[in-house]
Design goal:
Layout (H helix, E strand, L loop, with lengths): L15 H11 L20 H8 L7 E3 L20 E6 L1 H5 L13 E5 L7 E3 L16 H4 E2 L2 E2 L12 E8 H5 L10 E2 L1 H11 L8 E5 L2 H8 L11 E2 L4 H6 L4 E4 L17 H10 L2 E4 L4 H10 L3 E5 L10 E3 L3 E3 L1
Helix pairs in contact: 1-9
Length: about 325
């Protein structure tokens, strides 16, 4: 089992290579669950934790935490990511004209959708990000993800397991103005801990943590703009230690990139991803819609709930759309 080194210390904003390397060494979970592991931090979400989560259903109210999947989404073509294209294969018109070939007046409708797996509410799988050619658990990236997909940690392996205790940390409401954080706001461990204290909840082993910044609410009010890839509030690189120590199973935000944008180092791109996915083995969700949940939590004062958020078992995929459902 890899236990990691001591905390790497203060953040040197002029040394991204050094900071990433130090955090990767300090917070590595390589070997923690054996050399064949495919689940990463989902190993923390065990049967006891699911029973704990299921016991949180009090009122029976269910809330979808997904954005819509349609052509009016946030994508602008970066890395060939597009919004979903939905096409009807059979329609009511076809049925009314009687040209579908079914007997006894039967008619029907069918449709198809084409989209990148990470164009809307989604999970980042363990094969999504590498660090210096290494994938989760120290495997060579070229042996993990090929043109045939993720041959080792495809997201289909996670499909049965993402259900348990969800915890909302509405940092936008606690630390922001009118429930929203400004672009470039770096959420630190102190912000996360203060928000949990304000909500009266604890965060720990096996939890699925949802961090609301208010960025999606602003995009809905002002238009998508640069929501997908532009400036945004998000987690600070310095939260890598908190993500490791708390032993959470997964984390999701209402932003495109999970971590603060612009990133905190000069000439860097998504450095927290570079540590969290290939080294911690952390399951990361992005573009979740947490606004209705936040309102409900503020109304009833309960910030933990049963959460189910299974990825689609697309064989060999490095990400997946998801319709998370919180039940309170």
């Amino acid at each position: 089992m890899t236990t990691g080194s001591p905390d790497p210390g203060p953040l040197d904003r002029n040394d991204p290579e050094g900071a990433i390397a130090a955090a990767a060494e300090a917070y590595s979970n390589w070997g923690r669950w054996g050399e064949d592991d495919r689940l990463g931090t989902l190993n923390f979400l065990d049967e006891a934790k699911r029973r704990e989560g299921a016991a949180l259903v009090r009122r029976g109210v269910s809330l979808s935490l997904a954005q819509r999947f349609d052509r009016d989404g946030p994508q602008r073509g970066w890395r060939r990511r597009t919004n979903p294209v939905h096409t009807m294969l059979d329609t009511g018109t076809d049925a009314a004209l009687g040209n579908q070939g079914f007997p006894h007046g039967l008619g029907g409708a069918d449709d198809v959708i084409a989209m990148p797996l990470q164009c809307s509410t989604q999970w980042d799988g363990l094969g999504h990000i590498f660090d210096h050619g290494k994938a989760w658990n120290g495997r060579p990236a070229e042996q993990v993800v090929t043109s045939d997909g993720d041959l080792v940690t495809g997201i289909e392996h996670m499909a049965p397991y993402v259900a348990g205790r969800g915890v909302l940390l509405d940092v936008g409401r606690v630390a922001g103005a009118d429930g929203e954080l400004p672009d470039g706001f770096a959420i630190t461990e102190e912000h996360l801990r203060a928000t949990a204290e304000a909500h009266g909840v604890t965060v720990g082993r096996g939890d699925i943590v949802l961090v609301r910044t208010g960025r999606l609410a602003r995009a809905r009010r002002e238009g998508w703009g640069e929501y997908a890839g532009g400036p945004s509030p998000g987690l600070s690189f310095t939260t890598a230690g908190w993500l490791h120590r708390t032993e959470i199973a997964a984390i999701a935000t209402d932003t495109w990139g999970f971590e603060v944008r612009p990133n905190e180092f000069a000439h860097s791109f998504q450095p927290l991803h570079q540590v969290a996915i290939p080294h911690l083995g952390l399951l990361i969700g992005e573009m979740w819609d947490l606004d209705a949940l936040a309102e409900d939590c503020a109304h009833d004062g309960a910030y933990d709930f049963w959460l189910t958020a299974a990825p689609l078992p697309v064989t060999g995929a490095v990400g997946s759309p998801v319709n998370p459902v919180a039940v309170k």
